[in-house]
Amino acid sequence: MGEVYDSMWDVIGGGCSWYCGAGGYQVTTSSRLSSQGNISYEPKNLKDFSFKTAWVEGVSGYGIGEYIKFTFNPEHPRLTKIILVNGYVKSKKAWEDNSRAKKIKMYVNHIPYAIVNLKDVYAEQYFEVDPIGHSDRKNSEELKQKDKFTIKFEILDVYKGNKYDDTAITEIYFDGIDVH
């Protein structure tokens, strides 16, 4: 685990990263909290490399059963690491006031993959996975014809916030293989 920095690029470091060759992917969620003035809680906040924005679920209560789903094109490089920034980390107060995921269920292509127990820390949390994605990478044209792959995270339990029921997650990003 690493501490949260002001700039995401301080965390990733200089030079080329896995994202240079990874290409885009989509993120959708089961709900989101309505915007508060010019502050939005959109799913895209989960992949914007900013610790100043967050996705916040938008149902009554703590968001148990709400989910985040990432959809990757078939030619996307395989994933081997998931990095999650739990809670609303734009400030220590925002992090303490909002609820945070405690336990999440991870699915790969709609099949349960793991139960992840998150720590209640104001920091990134990493977990390694066996390569996720298409392993046969010899023919790029054939690879493009394969099905997209998905990773879904479902909230099972939360650390309750001091002020709000709303459960927030600031970032989920990835590292992997098959680039450079």
Task: Walk me through what this model shows.
There is one protein chain. 12% of the residues lie in helices and 38% in strands. With 180 residues, the chain is mainly beta. It has one domain: Galactose-binding domain-like (Jelly Rolls), CATH 2.60.120. Strands 1, 2, 3, 4, 5, 6, 7, 8 and 9 form a 9-stranded mixed beta sheet that branches. It is elongated and about 55 Å long.
Please supply descriptive tags for the structure shown above.
elongated, 12% helix, nine-stranded mixed beta sheet, mainly beta, Jelly Rolls, 180 residues
What's the short version?
The chain has helices spanning 8-12, 18-22, 92-97, 140-144; strands at 25-29, 55-56, 67-72, 79-86, 99-108, 111-117, 124-132, 149-159, 167-176.
Q: Which regions contain 5 or more consecutive residues with pLDDT less than 50?
A: none
The overall average pLDDT, rounded, is 89
- CATH class category label: Mainly Beta
Name given to the CATH homologous superfamily: Galactose-binding domain-like
In angstroms, what separates the terminal alpha carbons?
26 Å
Domain unit count: 1
